Amino acid sequence: xxxxxxxxxxxxxxxxxxxxxxxxxxxxxxxxxxxxxxxxxxxxxxxxxxxxxxxxxxxxxxxxxxxxxxxxxxxxxxxxxxxxxxxxxxxxxxxxxxxxxxxxxxxxxxxxxxxxxxxxxxxxxxxxxxxxxxxxxxxxxxxxxxxxx
Length: 149
What we know:
single chain; alpha+beta; 3-stranded antiparallel beta sheet; 2 helices; 7 strands; 34% helix
């Protein structure tokens, strides 16, 4: 599980933007003298110096692969929604079947099916990644939430 807990010593370069039609925030942060540049987090979360988060990274230590995080102060989970990918996963198989059996002997129809299959594989992979990230972040105990024996 690629979870990494960090305490932001400083935060800079905060830019609210959109990437691939989704809200995103780009920022730089420093932890123990090491600066990470142009980290992209989904949405418009609270980002400030002094906050502690546990991040889910696709690749350990690589902040360019950030999927989401859990804020230790309020328990908020910041992670993309998989709604678009779920819709794609429902619609693309129908479109692929229509293309494949429509009687089009043209090679363009088969190229279309191959492209749609690749997109479907990507969408399913993204759904799995987002579900794993949300599940891993949701089970993290928040500081102060432990019960005394």
